[in-house]
From TrEMBL:
It comes from Anisodus tanguticus. InterPro entries: Expan_Lol_pI (IPR007118), Expansin/allergen_DPBB_dom (IPR007112), Expansin_CBD (IPR007117), Expansin_CBD_sf (IPR036749), RlpA-like_DPBB (IPR009009), RlpA-like_sf (IPR036908). GO terms for biological process: anatomical structure morphogenesis. One of its GO terms (cellular component) is extracellular region. This is Expansin-like B1.
Length: 365
């Protein structure tokens, strides 16, 4: 579906001090090619821009190939990402898009479109028989970081995680869980997020990586992820290579936000809840791509929505909750888009019990 994923931005500077400026030039990658051991074949305008003054540009161009230094930078377009429908597209049969105004400091690795009829995200590069109607676009960007692991007797997560999941935090996602650094934990908003994490050691690690769910907060020496040992081992190219991965302790990784693609959202009543005076809940089985920012419950007697507060991690609570069947609406943030999703049916039944889990009619990406 995406025609080009090239829009990387590089600051290029020529090393010829007599001819070239210290400022260099900022270029956008739009093509693929190489010459005489070159990393860049610049446009004439970009090549001339390397010169110290416009009058020196002809002398620089006469050299043909020059030594340079470069680094990845942001273009800072200042606007939103744009999507262009490619001229080869044909409505209802074939869709190809080009992503424009990408910031350039990160890579676009995948694009998904949302089909409202099936309520599913479709992961594609180009798409035959695309869904009709208005659509949403989801772009996953990849970031560089480091990952390590914490030791548990069974290789899974910990029941004392900062998200408040308890035993659920050990076994959710088949035990492929992680503690996230403060920037990803986001004061609990990042709880339940799913990331695809891939180790960069080509000799030991697979290209597929591992999909982990955030159930805790923590960071080590420059790490964004402290994984369960099951998850850390899953990055290995082959199970037999996992024992060689563990001695490294910390590995370089790249990661991107993804969905774990669960079914309907579930609500667990926290064990500390008291039917007569206190309600605390956890959201389970949300997809992990969108953040849950807040939630409100509906009081049928007063016809009002009552906000719950984030107590800590993924736990929301409310003193003196209303009696009766309760509907719920949840504020989510998906990418830069914030919206409310609402249950049509009862989310929490009257006479709920601490420790019980109730399935809703809501799905969170």
């Amino acid at each position: 579906m995406m025609k080009s994923a090239f829009e990387k931005i590089n600051k290029v500077r020529c090393k010829n001090n007599a001819l070239c400026s210290e400022e260099g030039t900022k270029v956008v990658v739009t093509d693929s090619a190489d010459g005489q051991e070159t990393d860049f074949i610049l446009s004439f305008k970009a090549y001339a821009k390397l010169a110290k003054t416009p009058s020196l540009a002809p002398h620089l161009c006469g050299k043909g190939v020059v030594d340079i230094e470069y680094r990845r930078v942001s273009c800072r377009y200042g606007g939103n990402l744009m999507v262009k429908i490619h001229e080869h597209s044909k409505y209802s049969e074939y869709l190809t898009i080009v992503v424009l105004n990408q910031d350039g400091v990160t890579d676009i690795h995948a694009v998904e479109v949302y089909e409202e009829e099936s309520q599913q995200w479709i992961s594609v590069w180009d798409l035959s028989s695309p869904p009709c109607g208005e659509g949403e676009l989801k772009v996953s960007e990849t970031y560089d970081s480091k990952a390590t692991y914490y030791k548990t007797s069974d290789g899974k997560g910990t029941p004392s995680g900062a998200c408040g999941y308890g035993e659920y935090g050990r076994y959710v996602n088949d035990g492929l869980v992680t503690a996230a650094s403060w920037k990803l934990y986001k004061n609990g908003v990042g709880c339940g997020a799913c990331y695809e994490v891939r180790c960069k050691d080509k000799a030991l690690c697979s290209d597929k990586g591992v999909k982990v769910k955030v159930t805790d907060s923590g960071e080590g020496p420059g790490t964004d992820f402290i994984m369960s040992s099951d998850a850390f081992a899953k990055m290995a190219k082959h199970p037999k290579l996992a024992h060689m991965l563990f001695p490294k302790g910390v590995v370089d990784v790249d990661y991107k936000r993804v969905s774990c693609k669960y079914g309907n959202l579930k609500i667990k009543i926290n064990e500390h809840s008291n039917y007569h005076g206190y309600l605390a809940i956890l959201f389970l089985d949300h997809g992990g791509y969108a953040d849950i920012l807040g939630c409100e419950i509906y009081n049928e007697k007063t016809y009002k929505w009552i906000p719950m507060r984030r107590s800590y991690g993924a736990v929301f609570d409310l003193a003196n909750p209303p009696k009766g069947n309760l509907k719920m609406k949840i504020q989510i943030k998906e990418g830069e888009k914030t919206k409310w999703v609402q249950s049509d049916k009862t989310a929490i039944p009257d006479y709920w019990k601490p420790g019980n889990t109730y399935e809703t009619d809501v799905q969170i990406p």
